[in-house]
Amino acid sequence: MLQQFLHDFGYFALFLGTFFEGETILVLAGFLAFRGYMDINLVVVVAFFGSYAGDQLWYYMGRKHGRKLLARKPRWQLMGDKALGHIRKHPDIWVLSFRFVYGLRTVMPVAIGLSGYPPLRYLILNGIGAAIWAAALGAAAYHFGAVLEGMLGSVKKYELWVLGALLVLGFGLWLRRRFKNARIAREACAEAEAKARLAAEPVPVETPKTPVE
C-alpha cells in the first residue's frame, strides 16, 4: 500500500515540498529510497527541479515586488534587510549556499532579486546550488538509512518508527519557526508602536528669555 501510494504521489509531493521549502520532505524521500520505495536518482532529480523552480520564482518576485513582499511579514522584513547585507558583501557565495542556511530559503531569493543581481548569473549559479543541495541532502538521507541498518540490523521492523520520528522532527522545526515568527512579529509591532508614540509627542519649544535691562 505504501509503495503504491509513493509510486502514484510520492514524486509529485516531493516536487511540491522542495518547491516551497522542503528539507524535511527530501530527507524523508532519501530514507524511503534506501528502503526501496522510491528511486534515489529520481529523488535527487525531482528535488533539484522543485528547488530550482521555486527559487527562480521567488527571485523574479523579488525583482518586481521585493519590498512589498518583505513588508508583509515583520520577520521577512528583518531577515530581508539582513540578507541584503550578506548579498552585497559576497553575492555569488550566498546564491550558491543559501539553501544550506535554515530559514533563508524563501527570503534570500527575494532579497537577491531585490538587490539587482543579474538574472542570467542567478539562473546559472542557482542551478548549481540546487544541484549540490539536492544531491548532498538526498545522499545524506539515503546513507542515514544505511547507518541505521548497521546499528540496528534490519531496518524494516523499525521503518515506521523512523518515518514517524522524521515527521515529528519536521513538524517540530515548523512549530519552532512559527513561534519564532510570532515573537518577532510582536517585537516589531511593539517597536513600531513605540516609534509612533515618540513621533506623536510634542517637541518642547523653549521660550526665548527677555533680556533684563
Description:
The protein is mainly α. Helix 2 packs across helix 7 and helix 4 packs across helix 6.
Task: Describe this protein with a few key phrases.
8 helices; mainly alpha; 213 residues
Report mean pLDDT, rounded to a whole number.
75
Number of helices: 8
Q: In angstroms, what separates the terminal alpha carbons?
A: 102 Å
Tell me the number of strands: 0
Structural class, from helix and strand content?
mainly alpha
SSE arrangement, N to C: HHHHHHHH
Tally of domains: 1
Largest sheet: none
Q: Uncertain runs with pLDDT below 50, 5 residues or more? A: 151-155
Fraction of residues in H or I helices: over 70%
Strand content: under 5%
Oligomer classification: single chain
Q: What is the rounded Rg?
A: 24 Å
Could you say which overall geometry the principal axes of the C-alpha atoms support?
Answer: globular
